[in-house]
Amino acid sequence: MASRFISPTFDAGSGVKPPDGAKLDFFATGTNDRKDTFTDAGAGTPNANPVIADANGVFPDIFISGTYKVILTDKNDVQVGFGEVDPVKETVDSGFIDNLNPATLAIWQADTSAQAGDVVTTKERSAGNGNGGPGDVITGTGTADGEGIVAHNTLSLSWEMREPTAQVSTDTKTTMIATDYIPGQLVKTNGYASVLTGGGAVYLIKTVEAVDEVGSFTLANGNVAIPRFQDGVANILQYGLVADGTKGAATGTDNSTAFQALIANQTITEVTGAKGVFFFGTLGVDEILATRTTVSLKIDWGGAYLTMSGDNSITNTGMIFLQLKNINGSMGNFEFEDVTFDVKTSTGRGVVPLQIFNDTASSAGYEIGPVHLVKGQSLLTAFATDPVSFRASDIRFVGACHGDNCYYGVNLANNGDNMSGHFTVDLANRASFIYGIKDLDVSYFCREGQASSSNLLISNSGATVGPKTENIKIRAHFGTMDGPMDIVDQTQVADPADGQYKNIDVTLIVDAIGSNLLITDPLVNIGAFKVGGGFVTTGAIDADEIKIDIQTPLPFENPVIVQTQSVNYGTIQLSPENRYNDFGIVSDFTFINSGAIFKSFKEDLTGLTATIDTGLMVGIPKNANVRQRFTISATNGFAAAQHSVATYDVLGKTSSGGVFTLQSAVLLHQSSFGAAPVFTLAASGNDLTVTTTVYSDSNASMRIKSERL
Known about the structure:
Blueprint: E1 3-4, H1 12-15, E2 23-28, E3 51-52, E4 63-64, E5 67-73, E6 79-89, H2 94-100, H3 105-110, E7 119-121, E8 134-139, E9 149-151, E10 157-161, E11 168-170, H4 173-178, E12 186-189, E13 202-206, E14 217-218, E15 224-227, E16 233-235, H5 256-264, E17 270-272, E18 276-283, E19 288-292, E20 297-310, E21 319-325, E22 329-338, E23 351-358, E24 363-368, E25 371-376, E26 380-384, E27 392-397, E28 401-413, E29 417-435, E30 438-449, E31 456-459, E32 469-481, E33 485-489, E34 500-513, E35 524-528, E36 542-551, E37 560-562, E38 571-575, E39 590-593, E40 596-602, E41 610-613, H6 614-618, E42 624-635, E43 643-654, E44 660-673, E45 680-684, E46 687-691, E47 701-708
Parallel strand pairs: 11-12, 16-17, 17-20, 18-20, 19-21, 20-22, 21-23, 22-24, 22-25, 23-26, 24-27, 25-28, 26-28, 27-29, 28-29, 29-30, 29-31, 30-32, 31-33, 32-34, 33-35, 34-36, 35-37, 36-38, 38-39
Antiparallel strand pairs: 1-4, 2-3, 2-5, 5-6, 7-8, 8-10, 9-10, 12-13, 13-15, 14-15, 39-40, 40-47, 41-46, 42-43, 42-47, 43-44, 45-46
């Protein structure tokens, strides 16, 4: 089929001089390849090319099919008039327009004038069934499926449906399944289980598609209904979740299957909820209700109250409501209750509403909250099986995040870098338990820490197992604390005690203590747990830049104790008073406080060489002048029958390599009770050393304070 050529803006009779012999050359658009025109609309006989005007400048009938480049010249081949025009397209007559707007798709399938590139809009999909709409005519029939792509009857063409807009309505999922809908129809339901109770959706009818029989369905006629969620947003009611549960009880419709199908649909990227109590059945030991992979997911529960029953009869259960696996996402505006859990009586640790898990890829970008954890494991748990390679990061608590009765407030297990926010808990075994992560900045209030080995645990899995625990900032306030704060390695095989800690900054506010935590006990332990219980005595823990600010009205006798000695300890800063920890902080740590540094020792001092890093004293590792005042206090045992205090002014310098040279050490004053020890100050490599005499009791102690002059 061809249409009449309408010449663009020229009059050959008056615009071309002389008019006789004027020429129209026709080429394929964008080329110099000649393309035929025709003498009639049937396109049976081609014109000469170029087409030549008569003596009056009149051209014969010219019909074109498709798109052309056209050039007008005089008889001497000189371009005149409009010269060259590209493209020139055929016009469409009324008959052709009818062909592009057939009453049904079957009429187009029989139209032998169809061409690739046409846009064909049917008035109905088939006679009497409505659901017409536009589609593009494409080359080939190999991809035709009879639904979205329909093959032409005789030509090597197919009609590819554009997104349909017309739709028919029905009451519910049940009435839709019973109705004889055909492929290509759009069907809108007015409810899921019943009209006007929520869950209505728009479905596209197809012949073949995988269905879950929850969000998508098989019709009675064998066709399938596939939901068309706008912008990937689905409501939980559109998957048939029913809000007939009861708070505090394991009753109601089990929504677990519907929820699993919803999470498994990777075309859904955002889920909205609804108010009401939704029950999700039971979880066994270490079971996961639903796991989301591949595509990130955002869930706004819309105030829903979620209940389920976990098996809390066995220690160390890891039951999970929703796991985000190697993807980012968010979840908020919900309440969650594991109805069988109680932190005071349960053996298990409860169901966690959300776990971030990584094992084959890293992910970043999470928002948690607002959330009310009525009973369960934690507000958030994160875990990684290969934390050196794959981790989650950038996690934020938003809005009110509160737990009534939980095992953990937050549990970040070798996973969950760059987390920030605030949360509160009423009852918790461990208000926070973190290890192998970095860049944490959280604050929280715990009304009542339960009797346990630790209410606040900062840990590490060791140098050969997981990443360093570093850049940790926690501001923790306990109404009642009944387990200590620990910066302690987890129990490991063979007790290597080689955890790695860097820049740990904790403000610990304690209003009262429970019966499990005594004034004579340490409030803070530093070290490594032993496999058989207790602490490892000596290890290779690498801990530096530790800052602990204890704020409590309670008179702890020795609030911070280093339980495991290590030569790899760096600096520690204690507030408000570090002097209460003279017998708790071993010599491996160096105190830093208000411009002064301290070292404490407890042993037979006659065999001791105490060392202080001069780089720490002056704050510059090399090429520095050293001007310090040393105050050395020593006691020969607990009875204090012999003790002494001496003050020295020390001058020296450090080289470009950091090596210290002692220029003078002047004794300003010494007071002694009983035998007076002799203190000797010297240089050794990068350090200033102190040795002494007389005090040989195994419980003798010495404290060295260095201040800049």
